[in-house]
Amino acid sequence: MSHLFQESKFVDFGPSAYLPAGGVIRTTRVEGAKPSVLRSEVKLLAPQQPGVYGMLDRDDQLIYVGKAKNLRTRLQSYFRKKGRPAKAGRIIAHAKSILWEVVPSEFASLLRELELIRRWRPRWNVQGQPLRRRLAFICLGKAPAPYLFLARKIGPQVQAAFGPITMGPTALEAVRRLNDGFLLRDCPQPQEMIFPDQGELFPGVRPVGCLRLEIGTCLAPCTGTCTRSVYDRQARRARDFLSGKDLGLLQQIQSEMQTAAAAQQFERAAVLRDRVDVLTWLADRLARVRKAQAEMSFIYPVAGTWYLIHGARTVGVLTPPLDEATRKTARTTLEAIYRGRTGLLDSYEHADGMMVVMQWFRKHPGERKRCLTPAEAMG
Length: 379
Fold this sequence. Notes:
Helix content: 40-55%
Largest sheet: 4 strands, antiparallel
Strand order of the largest sheet: 1-4-2-3
Structural class: alpha+beta
């Protein structure tokens, strides 16, 4: 029965959502039992153009995907033993085939690389940190007692999500400090929540589930002593902080820090300073994402393609219209995208795509001058 569990061989990368209608993908594949054979084929056939490439092992399984501004230069670097990263040496040692696609621009290669990693999840890309770093959202859960947590995906139990931000110790500490600051619970889901205004048959005070009530960092909705309206008010305050509407918690902690320092309570001041630092880090990053979502809605023309960017996401591509028929089609597409969407994040799948767009224009600020509004594009 072993044949039932055999993996199918890799054939090609597959279609792309970032290719205009009628566009053609050019793929080249070279094979070699030894790295020296692969190197010769790459030197002979790889073009000096932007593109994406993949490494396949002896079982024809895709083990790595990368991008390149210059395919020949990038692929040849894998065979230089001096100066290459250790990971590159391990990848090429396992590779028995290399294939590549030529794309219109470096920006296109970034989008295509991300698309392929999402689709194929090659093991050398996803070991350790997928797409070089892990992104997450700060999520506010739903009733009966919402609280803040980090998640890679925005699930049905989430009423609001903010980000993305880089997953790591600082992000985890920021979420912990927010739950403490707004007195929200952070206990496991199975913990029962009891509100005195929900009309229990046998009302009474329940035993506390943890120590946070005693140290003043939780309203303890598990005890039946906190009303739903009071708890929900704190959850709304947390939501307002994350949306940038009310940073009062941060200002309050800064004031307490200054008071402690003035009273020469230096240990307490240091603790409060650490809280200020982590919450400032979070507020700055969320503000950066909000700014990008608000400002990055335009058409980016490059290499004969219109990339339709909305809310810092690449949501479509078009070939620039050449006649009245194609202008009519383009106008319909642009109206559907730029008038029918809010531009806000609506799925975790857009997280890495947002980072690609934000980093590209941060690295190449001059490219913003080439971008068009929908009205300019159709004018």
